[in-house]
Amino acid sequence: METASPLAVRMRPRTLEEFVGQGHFLGPDKLLERMLKADRLTSLIFCGPPGVGKTTLARVIAGHTKAVFYGLSAPSASVKDIREVIGKAKDCLAVQRRRTVLFIDEIHRFSRAQQDVLLDDVEAGILILIGATTENPYFSVNTALISRSTVFQFQSLGPDDLKVLLKRAIQDQMRGLGQYSIRTTDEALDFLASGANGDARRALTALEVAVLSQIDSKASSGLVQVDLAVAQESIQQKSVRYDGSGDSHYDLASAFQKSMRGSDPDATAYWLARMLEGGEDLRFIARRIAVCAAEDVGNADPMATVLAASAVQICEFVGLPEAQLPLSQAAIYVACAPKSNAISVAIGSARSDVRNEPVKRVPKHLKDSHYVGAKKQGIGAEYLYPHKSEHGYVAQEYLPGSDKTYYVPVSRGYEKNISHYLQKLKTLIQKTHSTE
Hints:
This protein is α/β, with parallel strands linked by helices. It has 4 domains: 21-153, 3-Layer(aba) Sandwich (Rossmann fold); 159-234, Helicase, Ruva Protein, domain 3; 247-336, Zinc Finger, Delta Prime, domain 3, CATH 1.20.272.10; 362-435, post-AAA+ oligomerization domain-like (Orthogonal Bundle), CATH 1.10.3710. The chain is built from 18 helices and 7 strands. It has helices spanning 7-10, 31-37, 54-64, 79-95, 112-124, 137-140, 143-147, 159-171, 186-195, 200-215, 228-234, 247-261, 265-277, 282-297, 303-317, 324-336, 342-356, 415-435, and strands at residues 43-47, 68-73, 100-105, 127-133, 149-153, 181-184, 223-226. The chain has a 5-stranded parallel β-sheet with strand order 2-3-4-1-5, with helices on both faces. Strands 6-7 form a two-stranded parallel ribbon. Helix 4 (79-95) links the parallel strand 2 (68-73) and strand 3.
């Protein structure tokens, strides 16, 4: 029975007019509405966070187009299940002239082979495929299937959208909670709308708990008061959506590293906290800090790499919650350090030359001379030992046939000192050449 279903299920919109949110593609003169009005619906890929209406909109679309609707969940569906739906879709099209919408939840969980089974019938128009995913479909869905579909990016619902849904549920006597006498404060609605983190299912579930938890202690005609205190007790602790192998994993790691590179310690601390709360592998976080210390700070502050290396080592011996401290220390240090990518540019340019240009031979005076017979061959005979010079430096050829400069230190942090020292050596070389 519908009344036995959770409130979030009962209150699912049945028409496009009832659907709330996603105005960037669903609304007057927007792409999806144009497709529906023109009856030119293609297969669709819905991507976005949970609880924003992906499944609901698929059902609404099927109803709007008068199509037959089938739903599968990718984690539990098999190739046999897909073929059965395809067979029914062919029969329905031949006998009733009705098309079939196949909704596949978590389509990214389908293997490539399972996704390939859909291609021919999607191409032929036998199936209107609507796939839903919380991942980036361009990474997790077959390219061939993407090319045959229109991708719509769902956004988290805003507090105003959620309050519309909450008020609708309170007033609806058939599907909602309208049979009860409910009084809600603005503070309670604001809290439920903001605390749901953009998830309509979560907001409606919290409202249902707030109301039904008070019904047993009141007469059916009694007033149910939902104030801020009740709302706070009714909503579960906010869960942080995070998949350690999925799209959010890479997006958060990217935001974390770019915040360190961008010298924003506050953003760095926030993205670090997101990964920690989501259960990210501590070693993965420590490696990101170490990479950023070398790539984005480098010799502008050599201590950054030392501190990052310490964080890596400490995380091997210390678990949470203590490990958050060395990670935070290292990450914030990297964020606040002067920045230079000179060493990254240097090794990248050098490796490019090694790959793309003729390989240079090691000069005879630089070759290893620590073996019997080297002296007879003249190996190392002309090598000049820098420490015998009063400057600790002598001019000699280290890279034959090249005057290319790979490492160009910046004028920030400690690299300013390096730049001054290298300039000093160049001046010394010029003096040496002028006296020869």
